[in-house]
């Protein structure tokens, strides 16, 4: 391993917040204002506090441990730590100093802690009520501060810390302590929501509020506090450091005893993976189809049903109880034998997908449900042993080869550890109240059952303490990157996923590998993802006689990580051209088959799919489209009609899509000009599916420019303002599927008259040829 890169790796282990950062700035409440607590637990004077400040780090004790890690391992690196915390300030007061205290320093990371004083000063004037405290305004102010910071410092990461109070000293003795804590807890909840909504790698969360509650339970005497519930002792600073740096001390190294990582050009380091270049075939392909299909399609109650059936009161829970039984008796393990794929014909499906225009084909290898859809040697809960009794991956792979389509596999089971945690629950209401669901079962409980000899824990993986807030159904979204109190997986679990993934790579030799994770599997708490990536690239080069043709997809990547794999945006897109090729994945319905979507006609139309495709391709991206299949392996008649309509458009207009590259701008129109943000890993596609004929998207091929209008104009005239005599003097324009059309061009743009009869029912495509 490159020794120069080692410190950076250690830094990444500490927290994904600090990747590739050198300057850290801390600002906010009293905790950031030096070291309030002496080792003996008494407060220090201001002079002493400054002397003990140790380069402004003790106020944020968990970062001091990072500094110690760095100084001990990378003396040649220079890291700057700046503390601008001032005691007793509210969010508004901190914001008023923001230009001088933050913007002027241009930090890589700014850590903000505020909110305790906002509640403190309110209760001084309103000691008996929080009813009129404007929590909405607090949220707006924090949102505005984050937006303002990123408008001035777009690359700066903001770590938002939750405020806290603990029952100690005068705070604990105050008559309004419960109100004080309720107010601070409410602000902490607002901060969590803001971070979850903005989950993009540029805003992160440190949940001190959770930690203080945890310590209060462990030590009711509150010896971690000096004289109130806000100012910690040195011992508390150490605990904060230990808690939030646990990934650095509990880093999970996978075992290669079963599956040896392939050696070659690529090593399991970020620096080595930067050698990756996106293959030209993928850049030319532009459009792929995904069969996101598995046993969760059996009930037809939608995506994540294997988790939702354990969430009392949810639609999936109600449907499961009514049709199959209570999850304490009939859980997801009992749905697996019903996944028989009795009408599944992979050859005819893949052949149809190719005729629709797909240039690559992706399938589900396993989902968060932890069930392998192949003859898995490391997971006995698989499709060869149970249900269909077929090696589904092998048959999909063979069908892709027959149709000469690059073959991809998506693997999602690395999150089963926390995803299945509701299976540990029980009903809180009704006649089954208090009866645990089947996620608690073990192998010995199977005697005399259909699953005798199988261990339910190999499926559910719930023989562990649940994550913090596990009974909150939405908490998992803030823990997806193994942060914020997520239960850390065992080495056995991580290694098992690593073994299963290499098993797929070695046996089925996929061309594409998709992970539904932040960056890579188990990032940043394990080396598993880096090892899988290097193994895949080296194996692919061996398969292709020294040329790397493989593609790995990862989500929520920073600019450096985008150089190591293909960035995948789920159900969304950036509103600009990306210099590096990328992909969006979306679906005409839900990721798993959903009867409600069928019954209510909620599928995306072929027109909406084309609008997304044209927009994505104009920005140097590819579109991967899922067509949900029912449990028996077939799609419904509504989906079939969508595929046929899409096929007709692609057959006529595909030359404006395939093997194209972006123009000098991706498009024009109200949507193109709007500032459309990506939410978490994507989730902004609704802004694009509403596009009309006023939206134009551009692609190029050779000397030709294609202008795709995202709808037919009622007046039969397409006006393109971006294409003038100055940047693209045009001698001829053709309407694909028709032929030459009349047009005029001047310094202000192009005006094209369309024929009376439409060439298709979705979108006209113009081919402009340069003089």
Quickly give the structural class: alpha/beta
Main sheet: strands, sense, barrel: 8 strands, parallel, barrel
Which regions have little confidence, pLDDT < 50, spanning 5+ residues? 1-20, 32-77, 244-249
Silhouette: globular
Spatial strand arrangement across the major sheet: 6-7-8-9-10-11-12-13
Written description of the protein model:
Strand 18 and strand 19 (739-740) form a beta hairpin. The relative contact order is 0.09. This protein has 27 helices and 22 strands. With 771 residues, it is α/β, with parallel strands linked by helices. The two termini are 55 Å apart.
Task: Briefly characterize the structure.
This protein has 27 helices and 22 strands.
Can you give keywords for this protein?
771 residues, alpha/beta, six-stranded antiparallel sheet, 22 strands, 32% helix
Tell me the layout of helices and strands.
Elements (H helix, E strand, L loop, with lengths): L5 H9 L8 E6 L17 H6 L9 H13 L6 E4 L7 H6 L1 H4 L7 E5 L2 H10 L9 H18 L4 E5 L7 H5 L3 H21 L5 E4 L1 H11 L15 H11 L1 H4 L20 H4 L6 H6 L1 E5 L13 H4 L6 H9 L22 H11 L3 E7 L25 H11 L4 E5 L4 H4 L36 H5 L30 H18 L3 E7 L9 H16 L7 E5 L10 E5 L11 E6 L7 H5 L6 H13 L2 E6 L10 H17 L13 E2 L1 H4 L12 H4 L6 E6 L2 E6 L7 E4 L9 E6 L3 E2 L2 E4 L2 E5 L11 E6 L1
Parallel strand pairs: 1-2, 1-3, 3-4, 4-5, 6-7, 6-13, 7-8, 8-9, 9-10, 10-11, 11-12, 12-13
Antiparallel strand pairs: 14-15, 15-16, 16-22, 17-21, 18-19, 18-22, 20-21
């Amino acid at each position: 391993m490159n020794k120069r890169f080692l410190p950076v790796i250690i830094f990444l282990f500490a927290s994904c917040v600090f990747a590739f950062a050198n300057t850290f700035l801390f600002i906010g409440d009293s905790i950031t204002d030096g070291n309030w607590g002496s080792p003996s637990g008494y407060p220090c004077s201001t002079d002493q506090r400054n002397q003990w400040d140790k380069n402004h780090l003790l106020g944020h004790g968990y970062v001091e441990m990072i500094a110690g890690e760095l100084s001990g391992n990378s003396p040649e690196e220079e890291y700057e730590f700046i503390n601008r915390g001032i005691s007793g300030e509210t969010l508004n007061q901190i914001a008023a100093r923001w230009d001088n205290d933050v913007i002027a320093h241009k930090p890589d990371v700014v850590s903000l802690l505020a909110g305790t004083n906002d509640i403190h000063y309110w209760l001084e004037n309103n000691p008996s009520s929080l009813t009129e405290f404007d929590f909405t305004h607090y949220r707006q102010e924090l949102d505005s501060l984050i937006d303002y910071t990123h408008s001035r410092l777009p690359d700066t990461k903001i770590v938002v810390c939750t405020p806290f109070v603990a029952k100690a000293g005068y705070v604990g003795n105050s008559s309004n302590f419960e109100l004080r804590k309720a107010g601070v807890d409410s602000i902490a909840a607002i901060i969590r929501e803001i971070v979850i909504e903005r989950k993009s790698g540029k805003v992160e969360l440190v949940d001190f509020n959770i930690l203080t509650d945890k310590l209060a339970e462990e030590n009711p005497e509150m010896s971690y506090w000096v004289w109130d519930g806000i100012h910690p002792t040195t011992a508390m600073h150490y605990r904060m450091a230990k808690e939030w740096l646990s990934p650095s001390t509990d880093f999970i190294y996978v075992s290669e005893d079963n599956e040896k990582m392939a050696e070659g050009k690529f090593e399991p380091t970020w620096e080595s993976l930067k050698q990756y270049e996106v293959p030209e075939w993928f850049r030319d392909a532009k459009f792929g189809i995904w069969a996101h299909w598995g046993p969760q399609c059996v009930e037809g109650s939608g995506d994540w049903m294997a988790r939702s059936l354990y969430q009392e009161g949810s639609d999936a829970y109600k449907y499961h109880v009514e049709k199959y039984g209570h999850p304490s008796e009939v859980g997801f393990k009992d749905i697996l034998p019903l996944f028989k794929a009795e009408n599944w014909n992979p050859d005819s499906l893949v052949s149809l997908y190719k005729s629709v225009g797909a240039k690559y084909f992706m399938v589900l290898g396993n989902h968060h449900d932890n069930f392998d859809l192949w003859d898995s040697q490391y997971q006995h809960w698989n499709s060869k042993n149970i249900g269909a009794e077929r090696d589904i991956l092998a048959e999909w792979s063979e069908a892709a080869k027959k149709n000469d389509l690059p073959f991809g596999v998506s693997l999602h089971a690395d999150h089963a550890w926390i995803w299945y945690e509701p299976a540990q629950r029980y009903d809180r209401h009704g006649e089954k109240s208090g009866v645990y669901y089947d996620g608690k079962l073990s192998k010995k409980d199977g005697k005399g059952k259909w699953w005798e000899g199988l261990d339910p824990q190999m499926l559910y993986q719930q023989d562990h303490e649940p994550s913090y807030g596990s009974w909150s159904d939405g908490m998992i979204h803030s823990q997806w990157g193994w942060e914020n109190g997520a239960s850390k997986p065992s080495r056995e679990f991580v290694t098992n996923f690593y073994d299963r993934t290499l098993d797929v790579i070695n046996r089925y030799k996929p061309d594409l590998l998709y992970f539904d994770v932040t960056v890579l599997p188990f990032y940043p708490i394990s080396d598993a993802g880096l090892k899988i990536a290097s193994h895949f690239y080296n194996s692919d080069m061996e398969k292709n006689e020294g040329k790397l043709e493989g593609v790995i997809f990862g989500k929520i990547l920073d600019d450096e990580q985008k150089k190591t794999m293909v960035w995948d945006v789920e159900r969304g897109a950036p509103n600009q051209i990306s210099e590096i090729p990328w992909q969006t994945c979306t679906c005409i319905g839900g990721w798993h088959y959903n009867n409600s979507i069928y019954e209510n006609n909620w599928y995306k139309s072929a027109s909406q799919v084309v609008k997304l495709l044209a927009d994505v391709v104009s920005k140097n991206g590819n579109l991967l489209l899922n067509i949900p299949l029912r449990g028996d392996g077939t799609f419904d008649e509504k989906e079939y009609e969508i595929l046929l309509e899409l096929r007709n458009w692609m057959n006529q207009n595909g030359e404006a899509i395939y093997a194209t590259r972006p123009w000098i701008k991706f498009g024009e129109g109200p949507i193109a000009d709007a500032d459309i943000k990506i939410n978490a890993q994507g989730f902004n596609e609704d802004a694009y599916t509403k596009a009309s004929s006023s939206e134009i998207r551009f692609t190029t091929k050779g000397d030709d420019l294609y202008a795709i209008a995202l709808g037919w104009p009622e007046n039969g005239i397409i006006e393109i303002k971006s294409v003038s005599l100055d940047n693209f003097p045009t001698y001829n324009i053709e309407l694909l599927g028709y032929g030459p059309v009349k047009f005029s061009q001047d310094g202000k743009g192009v005006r094209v008259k369309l024929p009376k009869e439409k060439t298709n029912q979705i979108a006209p495509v113009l081919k402009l040829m340069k003089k």
